[in-house]
Specification:
This protein is of the alpha/beta class. Helix content is 27%, strand content 17%.
Amino acid sequence: MNEQPARKTFFGACPHDCPDTCAMIYEVEDGRLVEVRGNKEHPMTRGGLCVKLKDFHDHHANPDRLLYPLRRIGPKGSRQFARISWDEAIAEIGGRWREIIATYGSQAIMPYSYLGNMGLVQGINSGDPFFNRLGSTVNEKTFCASGSSTAWLLTVGPTGGVDPESFVHSKYIVIWACNSISTNLHHWPFVLEAQKSGAKVVVIDTFRSRTAKAADWHICPRPGTDGALAMGIINAIIDQGLIDRDYVAQHTCGFEALKARAAEFTPDYVEKITGVKASDVTTFAHEFATIQPSVIRIGVALERHAGGGQTIRAVCALPALVGSWRHVGGGLLQMPLWDFPVDWMKVSRGDWIKPGTRAINNLKLGAALTGEMQLDPPLKSLFVFCTNPVSQAPETNKIVKGLQREDLFTVVAEHFLTDTAKYADIVLPAAMAGEAEDMMWSWGHFYFTYNQKAVDPPGECKPTSEMWRLLAKEMSFDDSVFKMTDSELAAHYINWDDPKMAGVDMEHFKTYGYFKIDVGSADTRAPHKDGKFPTPSGKVEFLLHDAKNFVAGPFRAMYEGDQDGSPIDPLPGYVPNREAPETNPERAERYPLNIISPKSHGFLNSCYANEKHKIKGQGEQFVLISPKDAALRSIREGDPVRVFNDRGDFEGVAKVTDDVNAGIVVATLGYWRSLNRSDGSVNSISSDALCGLGRAPTFSDNLVQVVRVN
């Protein structure tokens, strides 16, 4: 009789840029990762994984994975590489960097990372200590939630807000600019449970997303007008006498000034700006104020236009005005990051950054590389890890032009030869999640999740953490952080003495795989029932005094220098799109359609967008267009179309649908340029202009034209 080999199990944590941060179980047989499934014991994951992760074990075994270090031997972008050893790769990087430092100084080198991996040990901030010790340019990382974070911190302070599990107690749930079913799937069951118990679910979004279709009520403002809508709701709440006067008096600052600012945003005026009926503005205000607990879950898309930060300040005012914070399941959820007892200074070693060091924003990479910024010294080397800017960053044609510079020494650590990696001089093969130890915080719930190393990396792949250890040795850095093992780093970055850790230690994680920080039970948590907001006043601050624009520390290696510093409007309000008929009629004449680029259902940013079965499930690059706009352009269902403006273009397949209103097209994010119909993707047309707060992106503030491709 043949005996089946015993399977070993290990705790896993999804590393991706997603609020769910799923707890997983790795199953290993004969040294191979044979299955990855959701951890049934985890209160959020509940045993389920999203469509992206359900075959995560196969992703690890993808035959296209990079397995060995590579050196470019052909023109940049030609995908011509030769295999080299790790010793050769590290020596070449070190040698080139020493030459650059001797000639231009260390700030001519810049790291570039984002949330391709969220882990404290292997992810977005893992390279900060090394590069801060090197003295490189600081990389400011603001793709998502930086604008909302600046607005949030200014208005309510560093609070985690409503527990997503508390939504089961909510009676009026507002999901604003978030497609939960595609991008926050594990929160959706809590919403459904509340809905089945009688709660009303309202989705505010600029098109009929999967989540909007599942709501009781879909409110559809024009892109970039959410700020006017929020101010109109404030006006209607006040006008109908629906404010919680006691809560406003005791726990807010600046109500009279906010009331005066909101006075002009009458329902009729708001209808003209947003397209939302005046009666709907009034009805929403009445329901949100009177059906308690009412709660808002905001998505990252809410910040992605010129007035995004101001919009979020206005939205932050709503729960305070009606006293939603008094109740379990009432208030607002942005992201719980602020409650996690992570020692971000240990993670990033911002104390190593020398005063006067410059910071360059991720969204401005094209301008930084092409000379548009007129940098002194110019950037002469780029180290890219945990991100794929040629897919994800704005103005990608400009980035490609910069990456083609022969005098730019580019290193990319990756799993696959992505659209960014193909321009590298040196490519380093990175381990995947099941192949390296890590610890995950979450931007969607209150659980730390532990990721055990389940199998050895294939070929010569190495964890990102090991790359920093090798480079530190090459550059003769003797600091203790570069000698720690991954296990030691995972423990080193947590404030174990914080009361929210409730006395647990690493042994707890090795036994159970996760820990919910002690922020109170989801059945009783009402963090601001009695106010106590972590702001200077201890109150919700509608009115600010002499506030300056900034990016929160974790987004910029905890560096306080080279901040924006521009003055902030004392009050929330409405700032129109930069690219709109009202503000730029000449541009709108040439490019009359506003484009929205939400995340894809089948990809996670650009992850999985190179896998045939994932592309099949997601469908090729498509463009949602209204019947009216399609008819004007003689476009039919399934026609190939070209979307363009003066920044670039891409091609896709038309889907003619009432899910979008006239004047708007939707093309989801993540597709690889090299695998699309033409060498372009949605960010070929995106502007690198920044949102008013937190140097956030303006991906939803772009005008295009669409034509049928013959």
